[in-house]
Write a structure and sequence with these properties.
8-stranded parallel beta barrel, 17 helices
Length: about 425
């Protein structure tokens, strides 16, 4: 009997140790939940080039066509766009998910976008998550989905400013805000603003299976930006306020690169800056152009440095001028950016070229317009295809392309040949 009791005691003790081990490993040894695999192979794996299109939400340019809280309508419009993207031969969607310090997904940082439902802070019905739906449905179609956002813009005018929801970071931290002309912007010179932008990006990275994070060309809105107080507080190492502003943007870009790839090493992070870094009439290392507008001097965005330092996975300059343009010739800019990409080849930064398909749509029936009929886009796509540093193109923007048969014909011919 004592032997039986001893045996039962030993079994009980062993079970106790097993239970304790399970609890300990369950709490401390648990692996983080892995994100589900994508539903289909991405078309870019087959195409071997970027065939991207921007889908804009600001001002309801592309999605949704009109603000609505209807989950059914938002799904239907998303399906229509994604089906159209596939028919046109694109393989990547750049969906604008934060046009103005807001969100097209449930966020703990930014309020719901007024461009989505009509009023900032108002969610779609049925707990619908537009970004989750776009990612899932894009992947089912073999399309990549990159989250496109604007880092600093809060409101485009006074009407938008007055309609901000109380939970908006701009409402919560008015000392972070600078009014510039009609618009309102977060001050890029403040460390708190860089933290806000980074936290907002990481919220997407950690919760959605997006294929990339994409910033557009809006940084500082102009040279007379009212940031003198923050320059006095933080710019002591920079005698020139322009250099300080460029460093502020560099800090954001470098920080985002680090944060994104620590969380998701394979995720693409890229920026689509203004197409002219600087003309050589203003900077000795600039392009053979004469335009006075540039990302370096006008927007304080040193896009060339981002490539040289490898802080982005790709750069997609917006080369929105025709070949032979008087002050910003497309061919000269393509050559300049190609040279930049070659110089930074060891960094592995890809060059995608942003194209102005919208100008063909706007040309309409004006046969004297150089963009008429899609010929300019055809020539530019051909020039990009023969330049070995160019890894593809991104086209602006979906809604106009969808209503422009001549551009669709150009795209169909280009993408069926490669």
């Amino acid at each position: 009997m004592k032997k039986l009791e001893r045996t039962l005691t030993e079994i009980a003790v062993s079970l106790l140790f097993v239970i304790l081990a399970m609890v300990l490993f369950g709490v401390h040894g648990k692996k983080p939940e892995e994100k589900p695999p994508k539903e289909a192979a991405m078309k870019r794996e087959t195409d071997r080039e970027m065939r991207g299109v921007w889908v804009a939400s600001v001002e309801n340019l592309d999605y949704p066509a009109m603000p609505t809280a209807s989950a059914q309508e938002l799904r239907a419009q998303a399906d229509a766009v994604m089906d159209g993207v596939g028919r046109m031969g694109f393989n990547t969607i750049f969906l604008q998910v934060r046009p103005c310090s807001d969100a097209f997904y449930p966020s703990k940082i930014y309020p719901w976008s007024r461009y989505l439902t009509g009023q900032q802070g108002t969610a779609p019905d049925s707990e619908f998550d537009p970004l989750e739906y776009w990612v899932s449905e894009a992947h089912k179609r073999g399309l990549e989905l990159h989250a496109w956002l604007n880092p600093y813009r809060i409101a485009r005018d006074a009407v938008e400013w007055e309609s901000l929801e109380e939970s908006s970071p701009a409402r919560q931290h008015p000392d972070w805000v600078v009014q510039y002309q009609e618009g309102y912007y977060f001050n890029p010179g403040l460390p708190e603003v860089r933290e806000l932008v980074t936290d907002g990006v990481m919220e997407i990275v950690e919760n959605y299976q997006v294929d990339g994070i994409h910033l557009d060309d809006y940084f500082y809105p102009g040279g007379d930006f009212n940031d003198g107080a923050s320059y006095a507080a933080y710019g002591g190492d920079f005698p020139d306020i322009g250099d300080w502003r460029r460093n502020n943007v560099n800090l954001l870009v470098n920080g985002l690169d680090t944060a994104i790839h620590e969380a998701e090493p394979d995720m693409e992070f890229g920026i689509s800056p203004a197409g002219i870094w600087a003309s050589n009439t203003m900077h000795p290392e600039g392009s053979a152009t004469t335009s006075s507008f540039s990302s370096y001097f006008s927007l304080y965005a040193d896009s060339r440095t981002w490539v040289k330092e490898g802080w982005v996975d790709y750069i997609a300059p917006q080369l929105y001028w025709e070949m032979g343009h008087a002050t910003a010739d497309f061919s000269a800019l393509l050559g300049w950016w190609s040279a930049v990409a070659k110089e930074a080849k060891e960094k592995g930064v890809k060059l995608y070229v942003g194209l102005a398909d919208y100008k063909t749509a706007e040309a309409g029936e004006d046969g004297n317009n150089p963009w008429y009929g899609g010929g300019e886009i055809e020539r530019q796509m051909e020039a990009c295809s023969v330049e070995d540093t160019v890894s593809g193109t991104i086209h602006f923007r979906y809604g106009l392309i969808a209503n422009c048969p001549s551009i669709q014909q150009v795209l169909g011919e280009a993408y069926s040949e490669h």
